[in-house]
Amino acid sequence: MPARLRGSIGASLIVTLSLDDGYLSAYTPEQFRLIREQISQLSGTDPAVRRLKRLIIGEAMVCELDGQGRISVSDELWSHIQVARGDEICFIDMFDKLEICSRSFYEDQKEDQGSLSGVDLTRFDVKGL
Fold first, then answer.
1. Which of 4, 12, 5 is nearest to 73 (CA)?
2. Which of 70, 81, 86, 98 could form a Cys-Cys staple with 26, CB 3.0–4.6 A?
3. Running DSSP on this structure, what letter comes out for residue 124?
4. What is the pLDDT of residues 13-39, one digit of tens each?
């Protein structure tokens, strides 16, 4: 875990699958509790909701930070994003969560997606960019 992120995280993270292929998502316990509460309010008769619960709630694991700021993620979660032992990992601060992926995947994504210069951002109404 990069030192610049450790201060805002605390002693543990909840790591689970992401909505985006190639990534894991990591939340503080409080952030994940809020997500879990929202998902629990959804109808269990909807197959998409059951799948969401299985993939986000069911795959989640508590990861304690050790004295050096490292976390231990299960091989099962790593395999979901095709990370092998020894692969370099990226932690991307998304403000409300961290995204975790392999360095090679991240670099490939940046190359494939290019810059934001060709993207119409007017629909987002973000000032100051």
1. 12
2. 98
3. G
4. 999 999 999 999 999 999 999 999 999
